[in-house]
Specification:
By secondary structure, this protein is mainly β. The protein has one helix and eight strands; from the N terminus they run H-E-E-E-E-E-E-E-E. About 5% of the residues lie in helices and about 40% in strands. The strands form two sheets. The protein has a five-stranded mixed barrel with strand order 4-5-6-8-7. It has a three-stranded antiparallel sheet with strand order 2-1-3, with helices on one face.
Length: about 130
């Protein structure tokens, strides 16, 4: 059984389309320069003109959880599953699966990994070693 994939709506259509084409993109408000992932109107200034830009794919763990119970049959063989809110370097946050050998920690650095699932692509993130 494959993992469930969110269905795009009007606001998230660009985000999921870019992922399906192998890119993580943000939509930058042309009025106030705020970056968004899914948007119809900027929540900062109300603007409706956006420019797509490729995101760096880097970010930090803002929050995370480790699930030991499968809430969907597709995850039964994958337990425990770790997911978290990733704050992209560009500013927006998204919830995504987290992978890596080290245990996750708030503030840990991450790099996006695009994961094909059937005919779609999802954004996952892998812990990266610090340069220190």
């Amino acid at each position: 059984m494959t993992i469930p994939i969110p269905e795009p709506d009007l606001a998230s259509a660009h985000f999921f389309s870019a992922l399906d084409q192998g890119r993580l993109e943000v939509l930058r408000c042309s009025t106030c320069d705020t970056a968004h992932l899914s948007v119809l109107a900027c929540d900062v200034c109300g603007g409706s003109d956006f420019t797509a830009e490729t995101a760096s794919g880097r970010g930090t763990i803002y929050s995370f959880t480790k699930l030991h119970t499968a809430h969907h049959p597709a995850f039964t063989e994958r337990l425990p599953v770790c997911g978290g809110i990733v704050e992209l370097d560009e500013g927006p946050r998204l919830f995504a699966p987290l992978f890596g050998e080290a245990p996750p920690a708030i503030g840990a650095r991450l790099q996006v990994e695009l994961l094909p699932v059937e005919d779609r692509v999802i954004a996952t993130f892998r812990l990266v070693q610090s340069a220190e």
